[in-house]
Amino acid sequence: VKEKPFKLPVVIGETSQIQLSADNNTFSIEYSAIDYLSNGQNTYQYRLIGLDSTWIQANRQTNPLFIQVPAGKYIFEVKAANSDGVWNAEPTRLFIEVAPQLWETIWFRAAMLVLLLAGLMGLALAKFLPPELQNVALTGIGLVLLPLGAKMGPP
Length: 155
Prior knowledge:
By secondary structure, this protein is α+β, with helices and mostly antiparallel strands. The protein is built from one helix and nine strands; from the N terminus they run E-E-E-E-E-E-E-H-E-E. The protein starts with 16 loop residues before the first strand and ends in an 11-residue tail after the last strand. The mean pLDDT is 81. The protein has one helix at 106-128; strands spanning 17-20, 27-28, 43-49, 52-59, 65-66, 72-81, 92-98, 137-138, 143-144.
């Protein structure tokens, strides 16, 4: 992650999923096949389902780099072939979840919508209230509307 090793809470062979923070959305995955007979002649294919479902012919490359992966859930799959071209029957899978940035979360968007609506309501109240009511305190939300240039004094 970010060109530095990512410390997993467990050994990668003992987990099938990892979660990355929004700041760690650029990462590479290193893999290898154990084959004592082919002397490093294995070839690989991989894909990151959710980003691209097409198998990438990696030949002997064993560490694809994924740059600025959007927030979401992905499945990394890799399969290997020995020197005879025989592929493993089932690809190895790693489930990856990239967390969204703060401003991409539903809670942030909801808070911004509430602030926008409150601001619009305040503007509407200031514009459409009769002048004699514009300097009355709105105690429900603690808002005081005063004419421009007016100063608030003691009650």
